[in-house]
């Protein structure tokens, strides 16, 4: 069989012409009963206690920290305004742009086009008809993805490994299941799978962050001290950068944080709008011995990464020009900058530079709510970064994830010498449903990130190895054949918490027989899994109901082009994922390189309303949020399908039932 191994392609051939691909959309909501019964709380406390004793035995916790939780400052008088919708559409979601008016974005900040979804999918948008019940809504709560106990969460903040604990901070609204009143939630873990919630790390109690303690990053200094830089939205909605540090560096839980008395340490420089200056990165060392950070911004429609040097995290020097900028990409949020080893293998500390190292720049594009990265060369002296391939520069080329994944951030895990990526997974149903359910959003499974040494032009993302500790019983299905048009049941005892590893092969003779085609395929504008080509779609129907009335196909689609070259696309189709009509049902995905000798391969983590799918070892990733009404609990099924017309598919799968993670309050604090 022929193969195709071109690198990822640009979204548009012309980077000047607003090249953002409207493939997919972030959107959201759900709901869930808020608190468990007293009895279940008691059980949870007992289990948490046992868990913590184990943790203490495993590593020891020194409870020397003092918890001090300040009061919230008053926030949230952000307006809610109507938007124009096509005739006949009833939108439940408040068509708000609270994020925009506050200078940031959140899930309600979507255009009518985004709300309605793209292409041929559910064109009726989000309507309020579906009678959700508690059982359906409860099912949507995930079992092994990080979530607070209740309310709204968005960006990951300041992840780090400190004195035996992984710390995870996050943008959190302690008062509601919608964006607003943002403070820093905090949790710790020994393995990034089981988590213990801690008191809020930082609240909005100063003039320079009273409108929100927004996103930031941690830097661990050579002496082990932690510097946390974060964006504050001031009493006048100016975005400034602030410094915080642990009150007690001997406390492994880092419970108590001190805000530097001289805050803010940075205000918007001349020429930068006061609402376009946010999300400082982890600092890295220059050869002069200074620390360097970058902060996202924009000038007109050019997204940029400003660059500053500092000796002490208090006094900063703005460097001339930008680390990088890309016309047409708009505001860059949550910029990330880090080295990757050309030889693959371990991850690298953020300060590593020199031979054998490439540098990644990632920006979260406020305009389209997707995370784009590019690989390139860092010129330390000039304070510049250059993409290897300008046609796939930041914001116009490769995305971390072609589904729902935003505001991501990596950190270097010095305990396991790896770089780990966290990303915020929003909701795709109505905000009204969020409110009813009492929670919104989750975090993706943390992913290790390395350079793809086979292509040299993209990263590979993979669930951290600790995710495998959740694997329970497994079942193997070898050489299952799906003829053109076939749907084959994969019989499992349950199908809502799964880890699936699958490989697919197309019938070689059929591939050779198939005529060359000039089809220009795009996941988002095709008819999804219902679109029948010669060589696909083929893949798995996840969270499917027995009669297929609800199904979420995750699949490959292959086009045989000129000179028998094959191009493969990896897609996920939400259009039939739910009988409800108040959820977003887009189809999304991208081209994915499949190299000589490789089979079509996917790993999927299915966890109730989230499906994370990693194709070709993590070369392309799609995260889906789906809200079935029937394919839930024991009624969920898994099927192999082949909707191609010309070639049979042979699949081999291993499927594990996945345990639930312990995600509980830290006991006795
Ligand atoms: N979320 C934060 C901002 C950031 C945005 C506010 C990205 O700091 O730019 O909640 O989702």
Instruction: Give me the count of strands.
Output: 37
Task: Round the Cα radius of gyration to an integer and report it.
Answer: 24 Å
- Counting H and I runs of at least 4 residues, what is the number of helices? 6
Largest sheet: 6 strands, mixed
Spatial strand sequence of the major β-sheet: 21-1-2-3-4-37
Helix content: under 10%
Mean pLDDT: 85
Q: Approximately how much beta-strand content do the residues carry?
A: 35-45%
The global form is globular
What compounds sit in this structure?
2,5-dideoxy-2,5-imino-D-mannitol
Overall structural class, as computed from helix and strand content, comes to: mainly beta
Overview of this protein structure:
This protein has about 675 residues and is mainly beta. About 10% of the residues lie in helices and about 40% in strands. It has six helices and 37 strands. The strands form seven sheets. It has a six-stranded mixed sheet. The longest helix is centred in the first third of the chain and has 22 residues, at about 40-60. The protein is globular and about 70 Å long. About 55% of the residues are buried. Residues about 1-5, about 10-100 and about 105-125 have low confidence and may be disordered. The structure holds 2,5-dideoxy-2,5-imino-D-mannitol. 2,5-dideoxy-2,5-imino-D-mannitol binds near residues 105, 171, 214, 278 and 407.
């Amino acid at each position: 069989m022929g193969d195709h191994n071109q690198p990822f392609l640009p979204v548009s051939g012309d980077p000047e012409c607003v090249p953002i691909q409207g493939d997919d959309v972030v959107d959201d909501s759900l709901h869930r009963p808020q608190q468990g019964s007293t009895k279940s709380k008691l059980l949870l406390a007992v289990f948490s206690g046992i868990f913590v004793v184990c943790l203490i035995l495993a590593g020891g916790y020194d409870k020397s920290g003092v918890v001090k939780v300040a009061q919230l400052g008053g926030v949230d008088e952000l307006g809610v305004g109507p938007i124009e919708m096509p005739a006949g559409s009833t939108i439940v979601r408040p068509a708000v742009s609270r994020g925009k008016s506050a200078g940031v974005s959140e899930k309600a900040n979507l255009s009518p086009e985004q709300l309605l979804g793209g292409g041929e999918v559910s064109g009726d948008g989000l309507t309020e008809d579906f009678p959700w019940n508690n059982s359906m809504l409860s099912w949507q709560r995930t079992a092994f993805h990080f979530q607070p106990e209740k309310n709204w969460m968005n960006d990951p903040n300041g992840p780090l490994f400190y004195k035996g604990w992984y710390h995870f901070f996050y943008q959190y609204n302690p008062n509601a299941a919608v964006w607003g009143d943002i403070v820093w939630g905090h949790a710790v873990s020994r393995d990034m799978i089981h988590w213990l919630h801690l008191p809020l790390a930082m609240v909005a109690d100063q003039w320079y962050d009273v409108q929100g303690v927004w996103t930031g990053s941690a830097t661990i200094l050579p002496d082990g001290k932690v510097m946390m830089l974060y964006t504050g939205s001031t009493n006048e909605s100016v975005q400034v950068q602030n410094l915080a540090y642990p009150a007690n560096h001997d406390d492994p839980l880092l419970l108590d944080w001190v805000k530097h008395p001289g805050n803010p340490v940075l205000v918007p420089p001349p020429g930068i709008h006061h609402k376009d200056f946010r999300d400082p990165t982890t600092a890295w060392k220059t050869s002069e011995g200074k620390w360097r950070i970058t902060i996202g911004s924009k000038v007109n429609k050019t997204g940029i990464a400003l660059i500053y040097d500092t000796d002490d995290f208090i006094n900063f020097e703005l460097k001339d020009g930008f680390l990088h900028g890309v016309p047409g990409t708009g505001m860059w949020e949550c910029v990330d900058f880090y080295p990757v080893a050309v030889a693959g293998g371990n991850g690298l500390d953020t300060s590593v530079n020199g031979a054998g190292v490439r540098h990644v720049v990632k920006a979260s594009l406020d305009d389209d709510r997707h995370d784009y990265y590019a690989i390139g060369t860092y010129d330390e002296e000039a304070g510049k970064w250059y993409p290897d391939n300008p046609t796939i520069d930041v914001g116009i080329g490769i995305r971390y994830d072609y589904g729902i994944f935003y505001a991501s951030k990596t950190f270097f895990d010095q305990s396991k010498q790896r770089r780990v990526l966290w990303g915020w997974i929003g909701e795709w149903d109505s905000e009204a449903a969020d409110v009813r359910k009492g929670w919104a959003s989750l975090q993706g499974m943390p992913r290790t990130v390395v350079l793809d040494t086979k292509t040299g032009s993209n990263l590979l993302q993979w669930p951290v190895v600790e995710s495998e500790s959740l694997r329970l019983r497994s079942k193997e299905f070898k050489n299952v054949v799906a003829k053109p048009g076939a749907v084959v049941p994969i019989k499992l005892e349950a199908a809502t918490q799964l880890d699936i590893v699958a490989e697919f092969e197309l019938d070689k003779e059929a591939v050779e027989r198939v005529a060359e085609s000039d089809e220009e395929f795009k996941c988002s504008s095709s008819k999804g899994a219902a679109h029948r080509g010669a060589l696909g779609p083929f893949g798995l129907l996840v969270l499917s109901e027995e009669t297929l009335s609800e199904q979420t196909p995750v699949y490959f689609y292959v086009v045989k082009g000129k000179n028998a070259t094959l191009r493969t696309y990896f897609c996920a189709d939400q259009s039939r994922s739910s009988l409800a009509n108040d959820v977003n049902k887009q189809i999304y995905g991208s081209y994915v390189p499949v190299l000589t000798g490789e089979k079509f391969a996917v790993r999927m983590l299915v966890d109730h309303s989230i499906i994370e799918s990693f194709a070709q070892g993590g070369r392309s990733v799609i995260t889906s949020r789906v809200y079935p009404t029937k394919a839930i609990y024991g009624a969920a099924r898994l099927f192999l399908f082949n909707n191609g017309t010309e070639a049979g598919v042979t699949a081999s799968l291993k499927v594990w039932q996945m345990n639930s993670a312990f995600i509980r309050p830290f006991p006795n604090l």
